[in-house]
Amino acid sequence: MSKTNTGKISFIEWERSFRAAAKKDKHRILRAHLKQLELLNKPALLLEGTILFVQACVAYLMLDNRPFDEFLTQQQYDPVSVTGAPYLATFDICDKAFARITVSASLGWVDLADLYGMPWDPYRVVGYRDIWISRVDGDGLSDDEMDSFEKAVTDDLRFDYGEDELSFWFDPDTHPGILKVSVQDVYDDGDLDFIEAAGEEDKDGGEDDGKDQGSKQRG
Fold first, then answer.
1. How many beta carbons lie within 10 A of that of residue 106, not counting itself?
2. Contact residues for 18 (Cβ-Cβ < 8 A; gap 6+)
3. How far is 46 from 34, CA to CA, in rounded Å?
4. Cβ-Cβ contacts under 8 Å for 119 (sequence gap 6 or more)
5. Helices (H), the chain
6. Domain residue ranges of the chain, discontinuous segments joined by +
7. Which backbone phi and psi does 101 adopt, to 5 degrees?
8. Which of 28, 130, 182, 196 has a 20 to 30 Å separation from 146 between CA atoms?
């Protein structure tokens, strides 16, 4: 059996197990996680987004000829049951959904730069806007953990994107003990003029098909 087929079968088995656990729990764990981060109380969006992100991570690991079994093993519905990955990285997928990945202190198997470039929305390049990094056990991140994650995120994103392409900043204060990372493209003046013009067109009565929502970045 080819590695690609093996990866597909492993992911399908993982997805089936993850969905079954969420259904059995009636999404309680997902709902509590969204509440902790003060995000929309829509656990189904977190479920679907998580499955999409895990699938993308597996695909990237396979492209890099890296093993993916350990990563999948870490992605349990109840993260408390996971060993060796005591942190959660939660993504806002452009206001469309959310994703929750269980990670190690080094972020390990998760490539933030690759995930950022995933075209989840056909009218938008980026795959997410914000990331929240938190502890599985509910304790707050220490100052050393905050510093370590800031370095890991910076090294990951800057490996693929220059300062003229991508901007990001850290917020350790909005949710005490949780590190928020906000990411956006760096636009030139022509790009900004186009975005502003598209927004004004919708305000003037243009057909609102949702495209403008994918073009605006959170500042």
1. 14
2. 47, 50, 51, 54, 75, 76, 77
3. 8
4. 125, 127
5. 3-25, 28-36, 43-63, 69-74, 112-116, 143-160, 189-203
6. 3-186
7. -115, 135
8. 28
Residue 7: band (very low, low, confident or very high) from pLDDT cuts 50, 70, 90: confident
What is residue 141's three-state secondary structure?
Answer: coil
Structure-block tokens of residue 155: 């090294």
**Residues linked to residue 99 through DSSP beta bridges, in sequence order:** 91
**Bridge partners of residue 135, in order along the sequence:** 87
Helix segments in 64-123, DSSP class H: 69-74, 112-116
Residue-wise pLDDT tens digits, 148-201: 999 999 999 999 999 999 999 999 999 999 999 999 999 765 544 444 444 455
Residue 155 has phi, psi (to 5 degrees) of: -60, -40
Using CA of residue 54, residue 160, residue 93, residue 38, what is the dihedral sign? Answer: positive
pLDDT in tens, 118-135: 765 554 445 899 999 999
- On the 0-12 / 13-18 / 19+ scale of CB atoms within 10 A, 15 is middle
Residue 106 tokens read as 């080094």
pLDDT of residue 161: 94
Is the separation of the CB atoms in 166 and 154 below 8 Å?
no
- From CA 131, how far away is CA 110, in angstroms rounded? 12
